[in-house]
Amino acid sequence: MDENHDSAACKRVDDGITRVFQLLGKRWSGPIVAVLVGQPAYFTDLRRAVPGISERMLSDRLAELGAAGLILREVDEGPPLRVSYRLTEAGAALEPALRELAQWAKVHLPDVSACTETALDRPRRASA
Fold it and tell me: What is the rounded distance in angstroms from the CA atom of residue 64 to the CA atom of residue 70?
């Protein structure tokens, strides 16, 4: 065994895990991505789908997720002018991990929600 080996270095958190939780570990970020897994959504629809989030916080989180390359903001010229959001390829690639986390939570975390169906439970709609 190498005596110069630092055993504490082996126990450090993986850099990828750190980066993921710095982004998705922020309050509301994970639920926003989970809602967008099924289909694009307008700002107002996202606000309704994520109970308790303020318009300001939703706007901030959407900007952060966009800057990270997980979502795209699209303006529908209207009238009325509407803004929709959809996952990028990188954002959509989170779907299997989110489904696994949701399943883990169902088994290992107490249920505190009255809502039983979520965006991850619904069948995914085909993209246009």
Answer: 9
